[in-house]
Design goal:
This protein has 154 residues and is of the alpha+beta class. It contains 6 helices and 4 strands. The protein is elongated and about 65 Å long.
């Protein structure tokens, strides 16, 4: 399948700096109820699961729905470690925005942890990537319009 998208070489770390460095995490021993409560309070769709400082998983709203609610389990009795995704796809801080979008699409995930070694730098969501791509394309269009109308010096 040909790639018809504009290559955006901006690094993931730049997007993280732009969106803010707040990282909310949860322990694998916390309850699912605590996780969904935090996600609701912070208005986020997923939480990195960390043990000490090491990223060991990720829990999302979808994990809750498919692994707790639909199976009649209690979110107050189920530990995060029982339902978190353990097979994580991660990227480094220098991974390009275009590459992050390809990875999210290929792996059918919505949240992509950005790590430097074992240090979690943040999470890039599909929404973050789409907003960045739209803003980049809008800026390119404005520059091309200015150039075409003669308002841009080459």
């Amino acid at each position: 399948m040909p790639n018809n998208t504009m290559e955006i070489s901006t690094a993931a770390k730049t997007l993280l700096e732009h969106k803010g460095r707040d990282i909310w995490t949860i322990s694998p021993t916390a309850t699912v109820f605590q996780a969904i409560q935090m996600m609701s309070e912070k208005n986020i769709g997923a939480l990195p699961v960390v043990e000490g400082t090491k990223l060991v998983g990720i829990i999302s709203e979808r994990d809750y729905m498919s692994k707790v609610a639909l199976h009649g389990k209690s979110s107050k009795d189920t530990p995060v470690s029982d339902i978190m995704a353990r097979d994580l796809v991660t990227v480094g801080p220098d991974q390009s925005i275009s590459s992050c979008m390809e990875i999210i699409t290929e792996h059918r995930i919505r949240h992509l942890p950005v790590v430097d070694g074992e240090e979690l730098l943040g999470i890039v969501s599909i929404g973050d990537l789409v907003k960045w791509i739209i803003a980049t394309q809008r800026m390119t269009i404005e520059q091309l319009n200015a150039y075409i109308s003669g308002g841009y010096s080459a």
